[in-house]
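Supplementary notes for students who missed Thursday's class. We covered one full example, reproduced here. Read the sequence, then the structure, then the short commentary at the end.
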Amino acid sequence: MTRAIRLGISTCPNDTFAFHGLLTRTVDWQGLDFEIELLDVETLNERLLAGDFDVCKVSFHAALLAAADVVVLPSGSALGFGVGPLLLAAEQTARPTDASQLTLCPGRHTTAALLFDLFHPNSTRVEHVVFSEIMPRLRGRTADFGVCIHEGRFTWKSRGLALVEDLGTRWEVETACPLPLGGIVANRRIPVATIAAVQRVIHDSLTLALRDRQAPLPTMRSHAQEFDDHVLMQHVDLYVNDWTIDLGPTGAKALDELSARAASLGLASGRLEVFAG
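Structure (token representation):
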């Protein structure tokens, strides 16, 4: 009997690139029947915490909150050096130091919001919005700061915004680890053999995309906020790397560091565990 797997994937270009083979069934589904939803990352985070998915791409912040119920798959993660969210402002000299100031974050359960809380605790008021609203609101002067992710990392200069801090660079300096942004988690209630089959499908989909980097572009274009192919591939170049194929010891260490730092401030108490098969 075919096993149905409720799978949630983000619409980010690095994910639609990596999952192109799975989405188009160009790779073998290993006897599984994937029921796939493509959603923005914070919706995925919320749906994971509500128990709606068997397997899901989520922010590692959300994964920490669900750590007792999920395991991180070795393949499919976004982590690395130079990949962090950016703290932006409309004014060149602005700094987050006043409770009267407002910072926009791309979702309560995103790793971007967790980093802002780690590095700028209680510095400003925080409002959580869809990531695509942040730069327009900064330009419209309805917020003082914004923690920007996704395509915003490549387009903020052209929008006339100012860089306050690269939160990923700060993480790297303080920890000497790549920044773990998000990954694929599987619910622990799924049999180990089934989780292993899901891992194989994701690994095969990634391998296929990396072998022919142009093939996923139609899938990427159909879901991206930014339709320029150069920007889409910049996104892939930044977020898809050797650790996406396999977290390995370095990735596991980065997850341990994030777990410990979040716990030290009472932001999450779980510890992220990588599936070992």
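Commentary. The chain has 13 helices and eleven strands. The chain has two domains: 3-80+179-264, 86-175. If anything here is unclear, bring it to office hours.
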